[in-house]
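Recall from the previous chapter that SMILES is a line notation for molecules. Here it describes 3-(4-hydroxy-phenyl)pyruvic acid.
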Amino acid sequence: MINKLTIIGLGLMGGSLAQALKQQQAVGEVWATGRRSASLEKGQALGVIDHWTLDLAEAVKGADMVLVATPTLVAEQVLSDLAPLLEPQMVVTDVASVKGNIRDAAERVFGEVPANIVLGHPIAGSEQSGVEAAKVDLFRDHRVILTPLPSTSEAALNKVRAMWETAGAEVVAMSVEHHDVVLAATSHLPHVLAYTLVDALAANGDAAEIFRFAAGGFRDFTRIASSDPKMWHDIALANRDAILQGIDDFTAHLAGVRAAIADGDSEAITTVFTRAKAARDQHFLGQYRPANRNDKS
Ligand SMILES: NC(=O)C1=CN([C@@H]2O[C@H](COP(=O)(O)OP(=O)(O)OC[C@H]3O[C@@H](n4cnc5c(N)ncnc54)[C@H](O)[C@@H]3O)[C@@H](O)[C@H]2O)C=CC1
Ligand SMILES: O=C(O)C(=O)Cc1ccc(O)cc1
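With both inputs in hand, we obtain:
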């Protein structure tokens, strides 16, 4: 049971968690704070939160759980704003899509990351944002990755784990480094590709004509290009090295496919397409689960 949950940055993530915890009667009161009153007022009107204030100190006073749910680069700043406000009972966690930059920011602020700060990332969401897009079951049957550090207390880790399990998620733990490499490949690179594909097509010729004749595949492939550009700007910079590696590996692979098409090399084209179909079908159609499979979306 959480007595007072404070959400810093009330949007899709924070709002959905608040709704899930309230539905399970697993939280006493939910407070939120942020830069502007509009989303906070909306959250209160929707019944997602009980109280709000623009004053960070008032918002977190007496809280036993603080959720940092701002865009990724803002979360770095929020951790340092929180430093003088930490109380012994308080557990602080976050939902940012990249973990290394926040861990590094916390080390700069605190020296060693305090035992009661548990970094985390729900692998669930959508291209929508804002508290009005919050969904009570957003995390149900999805994974949440926690990236505990040697300094993290077992009690704080268990409290964050229990919170996400109450929201219906399956919690897995991994290192910060592994998280950032895996998510660069499975989430960050696909978003970069979707944004770039749509931008390239829209810039090149008659965009309206292209979108008018787009089939379902184009819609499926590019849905995530409707995601919040500010959020993805932050992710691109926060996980720069792993994303650059992903772009380079992908570019080399694409060059191989380009060459096969240019050469009319049926065997090479068929090999790549067949291998990709088998890999995707095996994973998503559940025909087999690799022993080390440890992420799902
Ligand atoms: N949207 C998604 O599908 C997922 C998002 N995430 C991560 O969760 C975090 C939040 O994402 P969403 O809830 O989707 O975003 P959102 O845009 O719905 O909510 C973010 C909230 O933070 C507030 N905010 C912005 N700057 C602030 C500041 N300086 N101080 C206080 N509040 C501030 C915004 O006003 C907004 O209310 C991001 O770090 C994102 O990378 C993680 C998993 C999935
Ligand atoms: O919209 C989608 O399909 C997503 O991929 C949502 C998402 C966005 C950011 C994350 O860090 C995790 C999940």
